[in-house]
Amino acid sequence: MAIARYTAVAYNNNPSTISCARLRGRNVRDAAVTLRHGGVKGTERPFPFRSRPLKPYRRSHHPHCQFIELPTKATMSSSLTLFVLALVLGYSSASSPCPEGWRYSPFTSKCYKLFSDKTSWTTAEYKCAFQGAHHISVHDATDNQFVAELARQANIVWLGAVQYGTDREYTWADHTPFGSFENWENGRRPTYHKGKKCSKFDGITGKWIQSCCKVPAAFICSKPAAVLPDAIIEDDTGINEDFRRTRLAFRRRV
């Protein structure tokens, strides 16, 4: 059986336009994922990654990618992670520290993007994770004001402060230390409520609000600027350590 190897190529930072490029060599370890920024020739950026050797594939015709490969059950994990890799790495240009559509903050050296579609806290964090990001965390008054300007358009957005499981202490979704700055409504941290373990951010007042995790709201994702995330293809699960920790955290009852 013939073996053909392909890698994902996204155009205009749009994961839905993933195409295919032929890879040469015996192992994906010797190849690279190329992301084209805006489809402009000459702006390709190689991204090396590690993986196990590819298994033989069954051939199937696809109108947008001739002989796109349909993986067997044994290779489904590797194929899935190629898609996730292309989805996460969306950078606009070498001149910008943030991907297209994201806003840079010089105060935190992070990139931020408002998503107006309303969803639960957990679903929003999943969506941020697939952008290589997390819910917003706020660590000082300047940071709080910057987030308020972003959130004003949606009025209310999710905040990254959450109480996992039976833990009564708040934790930031991005794992940064909590407690250096707080701006709760009424001027104090709310008392523990087992039905309200998440928090929201008021874009008008800049105040933090205790909330049920399932009441839908818009959200803002944030991630470090101009830093490529680690390769996702690391182990048998096809998900690197950071994604694994995030997934396990969501399995706990929020």
TrEMBL record:
Residues 107-222 form the C-type lectin domain. SUPFAM superfamilies: C-type lectin-like. CDD domains: CLECT. InterPro entries: C-type_lectin-like, C-type_lectin-like/link_sf, C-type_lectin/snaclec_domain, CTDL_fold. This is C-type lectin domain-containing protein. It comes from Bursaphelenchus okinawaensis. The lineage of its organism: Eukaryota, Metazoa, Ecdysozoa, Nematoda, Chromadorea.
